[in-house]
Amino acid sequence: MYKALLTIAAALSIGLLHAQTPQEKGLQSINRASAEAIVGFLADDELQGREAGQHGSRIAARYLAACLKEAGVAPLLESGYLQTFEACAPERQRRGRWQVHPDSIARLKQGTHRTLPMANVLGMIPGERTNEYVVVGAHFDHLGTDESLAGDKIYNGADDNASGVSAVVQIARAFVASGQKPMRTVIIALWDGEEKGLLGSRYFTENCPFIEQIKGYLNFDMIGRNNKPEQPRHVVYFYTAANPAFGLWLKDDIGRYDLKLEPDYRAWDKPTGGSDNASFAVKGIPIIWYHTDGHPDYHQPTDHAGRLNWEKVVDITKASFLNAWNLANTDKY
User: What's the rounded Cα separation, in Å, for the pair 302 and 297?
Assistant: First the structure.
């Protein structure tokens, strides 16, 4: 009897020693099957290239809202997951950028103009501090179709940016799977209209009543390809230079969790170009941005899901979940 009790006690002790941390529980939920499912849906021909303001983009938005609801992520807005907005531009012969600022829209509406209905998808994981936020985001729109093209007419955008969207959705699930409430509220954001001028993220940052309380932004734009076949682990890691902790986080986590990544660390004084990170950087918000560089299929109809490096997508998603965890739970950085 005594020996049996000792055996049970030892087993319990081993179990306690190997109990998963919340971060490890979250990491365990991130997997290739989920990445393939999300990218496969978004990059399917039926979505017609997900051009902002078009039918395929609206389907994508509703699919992503359903993904967040199924994961147990609450909507950010009282009206639901969709943050609808209008973009306007001059009549196409006159040329001009798409605009989302109300003053610009009012001026454009005085003459002949174009208009597009769009919608960001926004979820929320409530934190202990209700007055501090971090945002994890990626754009889900792409270039649509071109009926004048010979052959394949659909710009499926598997890498640009269904790959990044898959990371955001899996990070949302990982926070829920961790079983621990974060210190800061985590906003999960899927942006519309990036390809037309960062429209979704610009609309959000220009209309966010708590913009000064956002402590960090984590961005994804193209995380699934190999710029050079001989460097399958390559990833560019942009971050705000004033926050050197961001670089240390990734270096430590690659070693701790044996992630198969070889980052090109690029600290940036003012990371106001390239992608939706710009909309946050211009507001003085520290950013992190994952990107795996350009490739011959960039903005081409050949950007298909079958060409992605899934192991890289999964390890970038794991690394960035750990980034997001630090953004949400580290007091100062």
Answer: 5
Helix (H) / strand (E) element for 199: namely helix 199-207
Task: Supply the mean pLDDT for the chain.
Answer: 95
Question: Which of 184, 188, 192, 185 minimizes the C-alpha distance to 172?
Answer: 188
- On whether the CB atoms of residues 73 and 188 are closer than 8 A, the answer is yes
- 213: which DSSP letter? G
The upper half-sphere exposure of residue 90, i.e. CA atoms within 13 Å in the direction of its Cβ, equals 6
pLDDT on residue 13? 47
Q: What is the CA radius of gyration of the chain?
A: 21
* The pLDDT of residue 35: 98
Terminal Cα-to-Cα distance of the chain (whole angstroms):
54
Count Cβ atoms within 10 A of the Cβ of residue 155 and give its class: 0-12 exposed, 13-18 middle, 19 or more buried: buried
Amino acid symbol at 120? N
What is the spatial distance between Cα 139 and Cα 275, in angstroms, rounded to a whole number?
9
Query: Which of 142, 84, 139, 82 lies closest to 115 in space, CA to CA?
Result: 84
> What pLDDT does residue 16 have?
45
Which strand (E) or helix (H) includes residue 75? Answer: strand 74-75
Vertex 278: Cα angle to 319 and 171 (nearest 5): 25
Three-state DSSP state, 123: strand
Three-class SS state of 230? coil
> 78 in helix, strand or coil?
coil
- For residue 278, give the 3-state DSSP assignment: helix
Per-block mean pLDDT, blocks of 10 residues, the chain (333 long):
52 57 97 98 98 98 98 98 98 94 96 97 97 98 98 98 98 98 98 98 98 98 95 98 98 98 96 95 98 97 98 98 98 95
Kindly report the pTM of this predicted structure. 0.94
Structure tokens at 64: 């992503």
